[in-house]
Design goal:
Elements lengths: L1 H29 L7 H37 L14 H6 L7 H8 L1
Helix pairs in contact: 1-2
The structure holds zinc ion.
Amino acid sequence: MQTLEHFKTKLLNRKDELMLRINSIEKDIRHEGMSTDWTEQATERENDEVLESLGMTSEDEVLQINSALERIEAGNYFSCRSCGQEIPVSRLELLPFITTCVSCAEKQSH
Ligand SMILES: [Zn+2]
């Protein structure tokens, strides 16, 4: 199906992007050629915390993308994980890794 391929490509592209970001964050955290200056080291430690939380958000999104890809393979990508109703294509276009319809997502957030 054309639409399914479209979302699959979209998800894979996004995943590539995120993997690149995660890799570069990990490289930053490892500090090739770490500074010997004490104050600079303190600043670098603070940066690490920011980088780590950024990395975690990206990793979360990769997990969501992986489960969306599994749903594509299983053939239930367009149905809501919780009520089974069809998720509108316009919603998936905005959030391709989403697994629930609007009303279930709203129920979850309350
Ligand atoms: Zn639903």
